[in-house]
Amino acid sequence: MNRRKLFRYIREAQQSGVGAEEITQLLLDAGWKRSDIEFAFDIISRGRESFLHVHFLHRHLSPKVSAGALVAILTLTGLISGLYARSTLGSNELLVQNGENGKIIFEYGSWPILENAKFFEKVKQDFISQKADFIEADLSSMKLRVYSEGLLATEVPIGSKGREGSWWETPAGLYKIESMEKSHYSSFGHVYMPWSMQFQGNFFIHGWPYYADGSPVAQGYSGGCIRLADKNAESVYRLAKTGMPVLVFKESFITNTADTKYAPKSIVPDTVSYLAADLQNNFVFAEHLSSDQRFIASITKLMTALVAVEYINIEREVSITSPMVATTSIPRLSAGNKTSVLDLLSLLLLESSNEAALAITSPLGQSHFVDLMNRKAATIGMANSRFTDTSGIIATNTSTATDLFMLAKYLYYNRSFVLHMSMGNENRAAYGPSQYKNLSNLNEISGLEKMIGGKVAESSAAQGGMLAVFKMNVGEEMRPVAIIVLGSKDSKRDVKTLFDYVQANFDAQ
Question: Which residue is catalytic, options 124, 301, 368, 409?
């Protein structure tokens, strides 16, 4: 075991913007002594790491910690790097041309725009022109390709992927191989995964899983991983290396203006900022002041929920403390109790609980959680949005109707269960019923039964607002439509007015 890894972990985490307190807590959770951690910080701060690291590691680390816990630290290093580090290949950043003079520097994580086939192909060709080593996982054609110095090294079929709309659906994006094991045991599925390559959190590329008795798992959807035949997984494994970029593509988030055309009948004037548009082809039925930045209040909680499900195990239990018992419309939490992240999500989305908005951040910390919200907004394309807390109480939580359409689109195509949960329609078969009974649904709109999900915001400062997603009949076609209103005195009434307007004034052609 290379004991320099501890110093490298602390140094890289610091360079990525992780605070000393958070680094220390992660190390304590992994079994390190506080005195050892503080000593290591002191060495690094004095610039004496190269001289003292051997002396420190041999005199200050117990054998149990230096061997066992360092494995956990290396795993945490990979996760922290995945959250914070900018995408690099060797010493060069992966760049993509953006117009004539600009370039995009990719951050590792989900990139919804990569679900656009033309943009994805452009990114891929840019990587090839840079002679990059990378893996391409095409979840539409179910093919996985490995490129070496920009040249195709191998192509294999994908045997299975995560079910669309499930908790474990893999979004399009740029990831990287964070760790590799010839055989990885999944404590979640209680199976062994041969030729395992972890590329983000709970997502892996691996061979066909098998149980302890050697029997393979049944055919069907995976728990979010990309499954390959064993011989194909081995060939990919031998070409891959830790840190190699993984480019994931699936053709669902498509801007295709050719599939359906519309004939507008009239324009509906309105004094509020609003937007009604088709989520599948981006056709705008009606809009007014849709680029105006407005206070969005509790609509913020949709982004809170999105970050929670992408970065925290939903089965994780959170210990409720007194500061979490905040002022909210329907109090539910009590200090000293424990509740799962999944149940907190129900309170957050259905009852707009400010208590849940605070409690759900505890595994990551409030500041880091809000930072992830803003990072996610940037990758989705919400260029004119800013989040400053998780409940939407602070007036500097701002966005535009256009930006919120991008959020609705991402949720609809990648995290649809968040929308379903906002209406109390999520599938909890694998998790059991909520510990909270008789939850109120504050998002329902009387007379509109085709609502998939969304979030209402009632605030005197915001004058009300709402993001709502529907499956509605436009002529003879059933279409996914998002309606967003901001700065409304009666947001549900205005959403219904726009809903009725679309149905009455447009036909699919």
Answer: 301
Closest CA to 135 of 221, 210, 253, 228: 228
Grade residue 90 by pLDDT with cuts at 50, 70 and 90. very low
Query: Taking residues 427-446, what's their average pLDDT?
Result: 83
Residue 2 has pLDDT above 50, yes or no: no
409 marked as binding residue: no
Q: Which of 161, 176, 184, 206 is catalytic?
A: 206
Do 377 and 451 lie in one domain? The reply is yes
Q: What angle do CA 183, 188, 192 make, to 5 degrees?
A: 20
Summarised one tens digit per residue, pLDDT across range 268-319 is 446 789 999 999 999 999 999 999 999 999 999 999 999 999 888 888 988 8
Any alpha helices (H) in 381-424, and if so which ranges?
A: 401-414, 416-421
Active-site residue flag, 471: no
50 is a catalytic site residue: no
Is there a single domain that holds both residue 57 and residue 98? no
> Is 250 a known active-site residue?
no
> CB atoms < 10 A from the CB of 468, how many?
28
> What string of H, E and C letters represents the secondary structure of 154-203?
EEEECCECECCCCCCCCCCEEEECCEEEEEEEECCCCEEEEEEEEEECCE
What SS3 state is found at 421?
Answer: helix
245-249 vs 134-138, strand pairing mode: parallel
Q: Which domain holds residue 124?
A: 92-249
List the catalytic residue out of 66, 222, 273, 352: 352
* Average pLDDT of the chain to the nearest whole number: 78
| Cα angle for residues 405, 408, 411 (degrees, 5° grid) | 150
End position of a domain, from candidates 33, 65, 85 = 85
